[in-house]
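Escalation from tier 1.

The customer reports that the assembly of two entities below gives different structure tokens on two consecutive runs. Tier 1 could not reproduce it. I'm attaching the input and our single run for tier 2 to review.
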Amino acid sequence: MNFEFTEEQLMIRDAARDFAQRELLPGVIERDEKAIYPTDQVKKLGELGFLGMLVGLDYDGGGMDTISYVLAMEEISKIDSSVSVIMSVNNSLVCWGVEKYGTEEQKQKYLKQMARGEKIGAFLLSEPEAGSDATSQRTTAVDMGDHYLLNGTKNWITSGKTASTYIVIAQTKPELKHRGINALIVEADSEGISVGPHENKMGMRASDTHSVMFNNVKVPKENLLGEEGFGFKFAMKSLEGGRIGIASQALGIASGAYELALKYAQERKTFGKEIINHQAIAFKLADMATEIEAARFFCLKAAWLKDQGKPYGHASAMAKLYAAETAMKVTTEAVQIHGGYGYVKEYHVERLMRDAKLTQIYEGTSEIQKIVISRGLVD
Amino acid sequence: MKILVCISNVPDTTTKVKFKEGDSLFDDSGVQWIINPWDELALTRAMELKEDAGNSVNEICVIHVGGASADATLRKALAIGADKAVRIDACPADAYHVAGQIAEYLKENPFDIIFSGIESSDYNGSSVGAMIAEFMDYPGISSVTSVNLDDDDIQVNRAIPGGKQVLKTETPFVAVVQKGIAMEPRIPSMRGIMMARKKPLEVKPAAELEVLTESIKFELPQEKGACKMIDSESAEQLVDLLKNEAKVL
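Tier 1 run:
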């Protein structure tokens, strides 16, 4: 077992850290407060190759391994999770699915642009009445012979307004239940698509989360991803990898808050000494550091399994569950260590605490992760 | 046109500096190495000159004198965009020794422009660039804040107190660059990091050169005293402390 990163992996981590410090930190509070989409930051992220870092070089991606992805996601999420969620969805939900299951034509037409970061992808699974229960898709893709006719509404879509390319999960043969579900590549400017207003979220306020409505949208047959009826399995497979991204995001939120709390605890004095020298604070920091390290191991283990071509769904569910719960706990403690300063925006930790909450909810709630993990125990 | 960028491998600025062997040697255990910030700016400017289609710059090489611990730093320079890297496998003794090694390489491998950072953030010698120019009998320009090429017309700006001096020169020349030569260092792209694997990193044996100085001892600066924070609206308290406690008024 080797716990050392390669020179390239360290270089990627450092590049992500430099990018986050230089490009994301300035203005992060204002973007959060006013829910301003990070247009310039996402563009630069794309130019550096982070938006397609997992895609192979043949399709204009970075050709990086998943361990590098975890390291980059952690660094970017320490500063701005509104940006890292865009990176995570584009990489591990959209690009991964097209690269893994798409036809050569689909890869040439859609994947390359997304891998270069010139266009952004969105993953449309959740519905008003189908969040955790993804089998209950109400959106329909009726087979019309030479095309599918798409109707329905998708909710909570990251990059819903900015994305040019959607992967839409929709029901084609309801009689087959989840085996009748398809995954379709849909161009966001297709006739019949409308985008709802920006969701006014508690955290990750700068990412654009929207509902997307489909009204008799024609989707060419060649835009089907995988076989007919593969859509549900496709979605579950995509989410297995997506969970590594969100687990790494949660890890970054936790370690970002921890670093701020550690620094603050060494500067802030009460009763004549730095608060880190009070055992009540020192023990909090010790717990935070330990749990973050455990979360990091979970994330890296899942990434390593994926890179080795081994099953990783169970490990990624554990990583997502543990990292999200750790993020919530650590950010709450970071606010506590900061006292009153932690409750105001300039000190960042209250934002990280709001951001952490979302990691327990999206791409499979913590409760859903426990279902996945517990089923894996007896399989 | 070929540009050579001299690279120092320096400890990250957050490094806790320690010495060993009777305080005569820097203890580099556990140190995170980075490209010397001024050299990184020089490399950035070299990249900009190469990318400007109006220029004839077609090769950027980075060079370092030192041990294998610098290889990661050199590969980062390759990831940023240098075409090749050369490491002279020597234990750098002082600026004269480093400049001499680079000059020996230049005699066999001529370049048109040699960029050197104004100083290294570790030993702070500020001498290598000027010494290379002297060894090679090239024009050497210090405190350079910009280099612009227009065919054979080369314009170099250098900082002087309160203003700048504009110079013309011809290749080959050495520019000792400082802040301003480029806006900010480049972050390597994912593709750049992958491509760096395939670029050459040559390790050359050191030339037999005389070492003129010997480091005897290092000393750390005195630790800062305790700091008292005075509220910005309590000027009277500040004056009182300066007068009665610090006794400087």
